[in-house]
Structure formats: structure tokens, C-alpha cells
Design goal:
It comes from Paraburkholderia tropica. The protein is an alpha/beta fold and 292 residues long.
């Protein structure tokens, strides 16, 4: 089993397509297909279910993918350690949508001006999904939001699954409400909550706030899921929902009189990584954090 085989396998799994994987790898499609088949023959298992042009992982494929991510990450870590004292190679960064939009541009711009040879890969997701991706070696680090209480349980503990976490900044959260609703909490509690999918910390805080406003114990607010802050803002502006919004994201939008905001709480954003992961590229990113 070669690292190239695992790289090809991982990319086909991610893209669910031999054609797209071949394009990204700049290889002919037949070569990618052959390498996948050879890997299956070597391991004696089927790694993909083939449905037309769509490739989905089998149970064995899912099992191998976890190993592949860890092996490729370790190989990249070793390569960087041997090449130079100067940061090089790839750094895979995850972030919440809000952090990617309002906080990362300046930080990553400064980083690239200092270390142009580092290839940055940025992906976004909910706090829960990002934490899982760091633990599974799909990401080298991630910027996530979590309350101090939960962070104390999950980060920097003696648990083998614990992540190292560095506090980066505190985010002011607002409850964004339709302008016609008024700012009184009771007048907005009946609105649905526009939010990202489950696993989003801001969604959880919004649900908890709305639940606390309902007189009948045990009732749960209606959730309408969106995948961008622009869509969430549009729903609030249209008068159909309320939403939890970071103040830093709201500052990037042209806010009209169709919305109002209610101070909700402040929450810490952390940069999390695996304690055993060693990378000069990540070290240099950490050194920049206090300035942003």
C-alpha cells in the first residue's frame, strides 16, 4: 500500500467521482480507476459501491478512510519536519462560517504574506463537525465557538480524545429580530429560529434562549435550517424568523430598519488542534493569533 494509493482513494471518497478526482490530481481517469481497483485487490475488500458515475464508500471503505487520513497527515507532518525550518507544505484550517467571513481574512492574509510557500486549505462547518474533523485528522486545526463550561470538559483534558485549545477572541452574540416585532423578548419568542444545521453552537444558544421564553415548560422552538448568514439575514429581514448573529458578521452587512438586535451573550472562540500534531506551519499561525 503506497501513500499515493491512499491519496487517490481519499480524493475519490471526498468527490464521490473518479472523473472529478482525476481532474484534481491531473491524471487520466483510467489511471485513477486502476489504482483504486489495485488497492481493493491488495486489501481483498470492496471499498466503493458504484452507482453509475457516483462512488460511495462501503463499510470497509469508511474504515479505511480513517486510517488513510491519519497516515497522510503523519506523512505530511514528517515531510514538513525534514524539509526546512521554514513553514512549507499544506495547512488545513477549519472554521465556522462567521469566523471565516469576519475574522480569518486579515489573519490569513498576514500569514500568507509571511509564509507564501504554505498552501492553505480552508473549509467551513459547524462547531461539532469541525471538532470531529480535527479528531479524525481531516483538519490540522479549526476555529470553533464553545461556552467556557463545555470547553472545560472537552478541551485540554487528560482524555485521549481531548483536543488542545487556545482562546482566540470573545464573540458578542446578538439576537436578530424582525423590525416590526419590537425589542421586547416576549414579542419575539414565538418566531421560528433561522439557524445552521445541528452541531452549531450559536444555534444551541438560540434554542436555549427561545425555550427560556416559552411559558409552557418542555416546548421547543421551530427551527428553519439555512447554510449561509446571508440567507439567515434575509429570513429575519422578511419577518419570518429570528436568529443568533455574531456582532462581527452583522458589521459586514448593510443592516436596514427591517431588523433589530437584542444583546444575547458573549462566547469564546477557540483554535483547536490535536496535541500530538507537530507542524511549523501551525506554530507560526498560533504566533499570529494574539495580534488579531
Amino acid at each position: 500500500m503506497e501513500l499515493l494509493d491512499l491519496e487517490i482513494f481519499s480524493l475519490v471518497a471526498k468527490e464521490q467521482s473518479v472523473t472529478r478526482a482525476a481532474q484534481l490530481l491531473q491524471r487520466v481517469q483510467s489511471n485513477v480507476t486502476t489504482r483504486v481497483k489495485q488497492l481493493e485487490e491488495e486489501l481483498g475488500v470492496q471499498l466503493f459501491s458504484r452507482e453509475g458515475k457516483r462512488m460511495t464508500l462501503t463499510e470497509n471503505g469508511q474504515r479505511l478512510l480513517g486510517y488513510a487520513h491519519r497516515m497522510l497527515t503523519l506523512a505530511e507532518e514528517a515531510r514538513q519536519a525534514m524539509q526546512s525550518d521554514v513553514p512549507v507544505g499544506k495547512l488545513r484550517i477549519g472554521a465556522m462560517e462567521s469566523t471565516a467571513a469576519a475574522r480569518l481574512p486579515g489573519l490569513l492574509g498576514a500569514y500568507q504574506s509571511l509564509w507564501p510557500d504554505v498552501q492553505l486549505e480552508i473549509s467551513t462547518g459547524t462547531t461539532r463537525a469541525l471538532i470531529d474533523d480535527v479528531k479524525a485528522s481531516r483538519l490540522d486545526c479549526a476555529f470553533v465557538a464553545e461556552t467556557d463550561e463545555r470547553a472545560a470538559l472537552e478541551f485540554n483534558t487528560d482524555d485521549d480524545t481531548s483536543l488542545a485549545a487556545v482562546p482566540v477572541f470573545r464573540e458578542e452574540l446578538l439576537l436578530l429580530v424582525p423590525g416590526r416585532a419590537g425589542a421586547a423578548s416576549g414579542s419575539v419568542a414565538h418566531f421560528p429560529l433561522a439557524a445552521f444545521p445541528k452541531g452549531c453552537t450559536y444555534r444551541r444558544l438560540g434554542e436555549q434562549w427561545l425555550e427560556s421564553q416559552h411559558a409552557d415548560a418542555g416546548s421547543r422552538p421551530e427551527i428553519i435550517e439555512y447554510h449561509s448568514y446571508h440567507a439567515i439575514f434575509a429570513a429575519v429581514s422578511a419577518g419570518t424568523a429570528v436568529a443568533v448573529f455574531p456582532k462581527s458578521v452583522l458589521a459586514t452587512l448593510a443592516v436596514a430598519s427591517t431588523v433589530q438586535s437584542i444583546p444575547l451573550t458573549a462566547i469564546q472562540t477557540w483554535m483547536v488542534s490535536r496535541p500530538a500534531y507537530q507542524s511549523r506551519s501551525l506554530d507560526e499561525l498560533s504566533r499570529l493569533l494574539p495580534t488579531f
